[in-house]
Fold each of these.
Amino acid sequence: MAEQNPVPPQRWPYVLGCGFAMGAADVVPGVSGGTMAFILGIYGTLLEAVSGFDFELLGLLRRGAWAEAAERVHLGFLLPLLAGLFGSVLVLVRPITWLYGNQPALLFAFFFGLIVGSIVLIARHAHWGAAGLVAMVVGVAAALLLVTRTPVTMPHDPFTIFWSGAVAIMAMILPGVSGSFLLLVLGQYQYVMEGVKALDLATLVPFALGCATGLLLFVRLLSWLLKRWHGQTVALLMGFMAGSLWKIWPFRTVLESTTNAKGKLIVLRDALAAPPSGSAFALALLLMGLGVLLVLGLERIQERMGAAEMGG
């Protein structure tokens, strides 16, 4: 059963902002909305809320037990989170895809700093033992295996879009594994982004249904792991985040590329490159530092908000 009143009304603006940050992250191939949820301190509540969508919820709805149903899925948390997430995707999809196409080093430098900062915070509070260290290594290896995959060419029929959405949403929930990048690997990223820009229901409906299906199935497993082996699961998730840094390193050399139907360059394979000299590296370093400081600042805000709620 979900805990009662997990998010008081005074925290709704914060949750709205968390959703906005998650949506912004999910638009960028290589960056995970799950990472943002982890950084922002709402990961556990998110899993608990989504886990509430089950047959017991249907029973509550059939009986007209609206208050219990809302409590089961943490509706006071989900509504502002989803409003922020979808609002972010609609508002930021154009500028972020422009940055991704024109200034990728600066965009990834900032997210690189965010992830490094969150890894430092998690490691600072870690007491895992040998099992946790093994789980972290497994997480790093799994993330590296995923982020070094070469994109494939696949059709854009509704069934393919459906299961691509299911796979992508599973990745979006995992910190460090990017749903957008997996869409890129599956050859669906550009197609889905164009569908979002054009509000094309023929693309958005099967994609949304796939996301919903994947979310409901995968979140239960992850919630169970966190309750049964919390320390080891957190170590695994941190490993995913650490492994994803390979893909998010802002300076890269293109090894293989192609162009889509609109003549836009699509990178198929790339490799790490040394930082350039001069102002470009200085600006990227500044953005990395800003990302780290933002994470540390968010931790302070969460601590103060928690202290205020305890005092109130």
Amino acid sequence: MSNIIRVSLAVVMMLVGAVCADATTPLRETLDHKNISADFASINTWKPELPLIHPISNGDADEAPEYIADMLSFAGQYKGLRYRRGGKTPKGFDCSGFTSYVFRQFGMKLNASSSSQYTQGEAVEDMDLLPGDLVFFSGRAVSKTRVGHVGLVTDVNPDGTFKFIHSSNSQGVTVSKSTEPYYSRRYIGARRVR
């Protein structure tokens, strides 16, 4: 191996060590092939962390922020998980426990109940729905005056109808359509929490 290649390799390795270094745990590693030594702190497997706060973008208001796709993918991992009254963990969720758990993983705090979540964020008109918006329904009683159920929008059609993921007491975490008679009769409104 030529001296230029050896020197280049040593410089690259020192730069990688400097970028990945954690100054609290120094380690001297010697490359025994050609007596090239470099100081490294510790090079571990590194995974970027999602930021905990996701401010509303000043960009196009007709598009969901980039992290929403990650949020919906995360929520989708729980499809099929059983319903658990008062549940707020992956051992089982009720509807508001599910939405608050998902949002919490992305640095946002939602209130504990579906009716109190309905007071958070900004109201959204049906034609302005975006993936990641919260949608609210009356509970089992077909009363349009009291929120009793919440879900997270996954897909929106041009006509304002949508699909949403939620924890249903009959099916657990599932995806439903706003056009299903059970939900279309009970739909109250939507909120955007960012």
